[in-house]
């Protein structure tokens, strides 16, 4: 790498490394889908955001909600990531059977579009969402001192629109599925 490239940090570095692996054909689970992937288990840890892309868990480097267009023309969420970038995110900070996720759209009124609309559609179609959370790493396994943990599949059960800090926000209620591996995804994006 050139000296200029060595100064690359954070998401920019993640993006470059992930792109090199993609071009080299090292990505796995390259078709976006709802549900589980073979070999990916609940509790698996990842040490940088780009790893989520490499393993197919979440293909968006910056946004917390990743979604696909379904065969019926609706958008559906495949995964959400709580990266602790904003105060509004997953409210519960410990693994639990149910959680509240605040929709996307920071510092403005949230609209029922994009990822928020896709989360609403998951309710209608009863499709689960992969949940990945960012935690401080207790063993300092990497230089950034954090890790992303795959928490498993959750079903979006309802949402409410609330006022928070003067803005309209969507709060989505999610419940953990009991048997994650039995979910058979028929919703894939080619």
TrEMBL record:
The answer to whether UniProt assigns keyword Nucleus to this entry is yes
What range(s) does the YDG domain occupy? 35-176
Question: This protein is called what?
Answer: YDG domain-containing protein
Q: Which terms in the Gene Ontology molecular function aspect does this entry carry? A: double-stranded DNA binding; histone methyltransferase activity
Q: Which UniProt keywords are present, listed alphabetically?
A: Nucleus
Q: Where in the cell is it found?
A: Chromosome, Centromere; Nucleus
Q: What is the lineage of its organism?
A: Eukaryota, Viridiplantae, Streptophyta, Embryophyta, Tracheophyta
Gene Ontology cellular-component terms for this entry are: chromosome, centromeric region; nucleus
| InterPro entries cross-referenced by the UniProt entry | H3K9_HMTase_SUVAR3-9, PUA-like_sf, SRA-YDG_sf, SRA_YDG
Keyword Nucleus set for record: yes
């Amino acid at each position: 790498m050139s000296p200029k490239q060595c100064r690359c940090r954070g998401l920019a570095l993640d993006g470059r490394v992930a792109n090199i692996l993609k071009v080299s054909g090292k990505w796995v689970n390259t078709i976006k889908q709802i549900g589980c992937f073979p070999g990916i288990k609940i509790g698996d840890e990842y040490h940088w955001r780009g790893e989520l892309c490499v393993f197919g868990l979440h293909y968006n480097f910056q946004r917390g909600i990743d979604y696909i267009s379904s065969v019926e023309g609706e958008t559906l969420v495949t995964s959400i990531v709580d990266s602790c970038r904003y105060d509004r995110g997953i409210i519960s900070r410990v693994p639990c059977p149910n959680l509240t996720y605040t929709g996307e759209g920071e510092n403005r009124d949230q609209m029922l579009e994009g990822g928020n609309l896709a989360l609403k559609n998951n309710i209608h179609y009863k499709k689960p969402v992969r949940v990945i959370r960012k935690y401080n790493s207790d063993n300092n396994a990497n230089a950034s001192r954090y890790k992303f943990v795959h928490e498993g599949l959750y079903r979006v059960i309802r949402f409410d629109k609330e006022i928070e800090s003067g803005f309209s926000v969507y709060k989505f209620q999610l419940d953990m599925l009991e048997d994650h591996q039995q979910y058979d995804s028929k919703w894939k994006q080619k």
